[in-house]
Design brief:
Elements (H helix, E strand, L loop, with lengths): L4 H13 L2 H8 L3 H15 L4 E3 L4 E3 L1 H29 L4 E6 L1 H7 L1 H10 L4 E5 L3 H10 L5 E3 L8 E16 L10 E2 L7 E5 L5 H9 L7 E6 L2 H9 L4 E5 L9 E7 L4 E9 L6 H19 L6
Parallel strand pairs: 3-4, 3-5, 7-11, 8-9, 8-10
Antiparallel strand pairs: 1-2, 5-12, 6-10, 6-11, 6-12
Helix pairs in contact: 1-2, 1-3, 2-3, 6-10
Length: 303
């Protein structure tokens, strides 16, 4: 299906500005041109989106159903364009890279400090966004490289796997499992589990590893971000399973190795195919990778 971005943008402007004339002013078009875009969009979708009278424009049921998706898509496109604009407006003074949110807060401060000592005149921009957005940043050249998980379906990227990170059980420090040296998945059958429903990655890795066993567990809560899941653990609302390096020192939370099955994820450096990193970018990338490898090899404190 061909996506009519111009029609969608016109539709959103009409809704947010309150009419065809206002949308035409916003888009610097004639009202007739805006009407043409809407008719083309409606014809392509096979349904009417707007009801127009002499006094007002209202959404049909189909229009109301489509509006949230169009608004989100246009906002994401605007965000990407703004990131690209900012990158190119200051391309000579900024080194931009992307990093998994579950790694960024715990793994970046130390190498960034060392990097600043070597390259004091280079400013650094970090995109700690979901995997799908990180991939777009690297593929478009907005980010020099990404510290991510492998995504083999992007032909324009080179993926260099450098480490394997285990998933751990995060539980309240007063929980009986916190005193154990290791926990098993079967130990969690009577526990309230907090699921982290990321757009891509960790939740699907856990689901694939558990298979049909997943249905046996009690998933009491679902969070969109790891930090919220850990906050819920600290509040003693349940336990959660997270990548090892995502569990930094946190009052009231203990991390325990989890087995049967032991679940891991691969970490990789992602770059544009055929591109060569500039010396500062290569240095920073090596520092981040070396730090992650060292921390994985050193084991994980229990709290």
């Amino acid at each position: 299906m061909q996506i009519d971005f111009l029609g969608m943008h016109a539709f959103l402007c009409i809704v947010e500005r309150g009419g065809f004339l206002q949308a035409a002013t916003q888009l610097n078009l004639s009202p007739a041109a805006v009407s043409h875009r809407i008719r083309k969009l409606e014809d392509g979708l096979g349904t009417q989106l707007l009801t127009r009278t002499t006094r007002e424009v209202t959404l049909t049921e189909a229009g109301r159903a489509l509006l949230p998706g169009i608004r989100a898509a246009v906002r994401e496109l605007e965000k990407s364009c703004e990131a690209l604009r900012r990158h190119h407006s200051a391309a000579r003074s900024w080194l931009a890279f992307a990093c998994l949110p579950t790694l960024a807060s715990s793994q970046l401060p130390a190498p960034l400090r060392r990097f600043a000592g070597l390259f004091p005149d280079v400013s650094v921009r970090v995109f700690d966004d979901p995997v799908s957005e990180m991939t777009e940043y690297v593929e478009s050249g907005v980010a020099a490289f990404g510290i991510s998980v492998p995504e083999s379906h992007h032909a324009g990227l080179e993926v260099d796997v450098f480490a394997e990170e285990p998933f751990l059980l995060a539980c309240p420090e007063t929980h009986p499992l916190a005193a154990r040296g290791v926990a098993r998945w079967d130990d969690l059958l009577d526990e309230v589990l907090i699921r982290i429903s990321l757009p891509v990655g960790n939740s699907s890795i856990i689901d694939d590893a558990l298979g049909e066993r997943r249905a046996r567990f009690r998933w009491g809560y679902e969070a969109q971000r790891t930090v919220l899941a850990l906050d819920l653990v600290a509040a003693r609302l349940g336990v959660t399973v997270v990548p090892a390096l995502a569990v930094g020192p946190m009052p009231g939370v203990v991390a325990v190795p989890l087995t049967e099955p032991a679940i891991t994820r691969r970490l990789a450096v992602v770059t544009r195919r055929g591109a060569q990193l500039a010396p500062p970018a290569q240095t920073l990338c090596d520092m981040v990778v070396d730090g992650i490898r060292m921390n994985l090899g050193a084991g994980f404190p229990a709290g």
